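Explain this fold:

***
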Amino acid sequence: MNHQKQLTAMLVPFYLGEQQDSEGRTIQEMWTWNFEELECAHDYIQWLFPLPEQSAFNPDAPIVDESVIQAIPHDFLNTTSKKPLFKSCAMTQTTTERLYSFEEYLAYNDGTDSRYELVDGKLERMNPPTFRHLLLAKFLEQTFDTEINRLSLPWLCFREAGVRTGWRKSRLPDVYVVTAEQVMEFLDESAVCQSAPILVVEVVSPDSVKRDYRYKRSEYAALEIPEYWIVDPIESKITILLLSEGLYEEKEFSGSQQIVSVTFPDIALTVEQVLSAGNVG
């Protein structure tokens, strides 16, 4: 058995709390880490959020394949477990709670205009955005579109389209940039990109602080999205996260500081200019 197959074979026992990962850590230990500990040990991401393809940065990252999916016990996904994993991460569920596959999520329609993200198979309804939120996202979309057209890049910019971030995970970023090739074969399907965008932007709202700064950061790093912007009108700052060897390195900008982007190096915008786009009059 080669090294990669050995790692893949470890996934199910790892999730059941019966085996350590490649670094000798258990999943129970990981779920007890605080934010600072999570930031210091980034190589846990591919174990908690494994992908179906090889990581370009972490050679010890396991791969989810059909054998892993078939080996996951039915009651692991659909019932309340007494294992420490579920106690420590508060993942207990009632037997009546429905878990959705990614394909079911794409086809889901509850007859309303509600929008949902898919998180570990569960539908999480997104609160309607504020007008400030919409204005900021629109401004950034227009800014990126202008730069893409100026440089004649084969890229597209979308607002509030989806991104698949895992086996049963899909997020709704406020803005993202992809290559035209990434969406070419999905033009008549649900607007959910199934590979890593070039750049993703999230505009922070009061109910999304932890989601944008913590959960999506982990998922976007695992998906290996090269650049992630967190635009925070609450704290009047913009955080730019750049992927380096599988980890995000961040830099905060505020006030009259000019934003530095690797994806769009010629964009000359200060934080004040971006945040002022959320005002009217």
The mean pLDDT is 86. The chain is about 35% helix and 20% strand. The CA atoms of residues 11 and 206 lie 35 Å apart.
